[in-house]
Amino acid sequence: MSDAPKPRPARKIGRRTPLTDKAAAAQEAMFSRPSDDAGTHPVPAESLDIEHDPAQVDPREDKFAEWQVGVLFIIAALAAVGFVVAYVLIDPNAALGRDMNYALGGLFATSLLAMGAGFVLWAKKILPHDKMVQERHDFFSPEEEEIATEDTFLKGFQEMGLGSRRVLRRSLLAAGALLPIPAVMLLRDLGPLPHTRLRHTAWREGIKLVDVESKLPIKIGDIEIGGIATVMPEGHEEPDENALSPTILIRFAPGEIRSKKEASWGYQDHVAYSKICSHAGCPISLYEQQTHHLLCPCHQSTFDMANDANVIFGPAARRLPQLQITVDGDGYFVAKGDYSQPVGPSFWERG
Fold first, then answer.
1. Whether residue 126 is found in the same domain as residue 215
2. Does pLDDT of 283 surpass 70?
3. What is the pLDDT of residue 159?
4. Which segments within 199-324 are labelled E, that is strand?
5. I need a labelling partner for 300 at 20 to 30 A (CA). Which of 90, 162, 166, 184 fits?
6. Total structural domains in the chain?
7. Is residue 151 exposed (0-12), middle (13-18) or buried (19+ Cβ within 10 Å)?
């Protein structure tokens, strides 16, 4: 007969080998322990139609589980080291930072997942799993305990004197009623309510479109075909003070505007749209003349400016609002009114 070691049996999900003698003796000793004061005692898993703990089955199984957990912890450690190396060596400006983001995010996620999986396997395969049972007790108190509790409560109430001391009783009620008021007043620190200010900008009928750089009104013909300018309402030229008013004025070549509504709201191939992205409120000005696409630099939402500024890519859920414009008697661009819908990102009342 050959003295070669027996090959390791293939694992099959759900198959359990019998308990070893040592494990069976340990389990028998556990079951012989008396119940504690609460009536809790261990029972064999088979009595609950549950298979025995796999950690008690075979020393080789126990050793293999230990190696599984150890390998996962080593992977977590190596990923953490890789995170530090990637942070030091990768150029944060390469590919607009995407390479660093992918490397750091992937390594950190790998480290956390490996660490978590290691703890899960440790708990499931190595730690012993005792099956404990506790006898159900009565869910009501004995009558003598109920009477004692009632007597204690009434005695405490009488000793406090709330029934006979009117000054104490009334002052306590007054203090308890007024105490929440300071907490309510602290809500003012959250800031004033916006009311309808989020629905309106500084644009009004007849207000001229003023270039934010030159601070001068824009006349028809000042912008070349394919050009774009950031404008503000005359008299409200500071974007910091009028955060909802920044607007972009674009001039298209004849026939490039595909939307009839967009063309009718503009003037001679000039159209005006809100500069505030409808996703997160970032200012937009990355305009591509050939495709007529406007790109938000924050989250890459892309709008087709030749077709009602519809969203064609990115997380933005709404198109950019359009401002109706015309020209006055001197040829300067003026607004025909405020935006017909709120500009910028959605808020709680808009959804």
1. no
2. yes
3. 80
4. 209-211, 228-233, 247-251, 270-274, 286-288, 293-295, 302-304, 310-313, 322-323
5. 90
6. 2
7. exposed
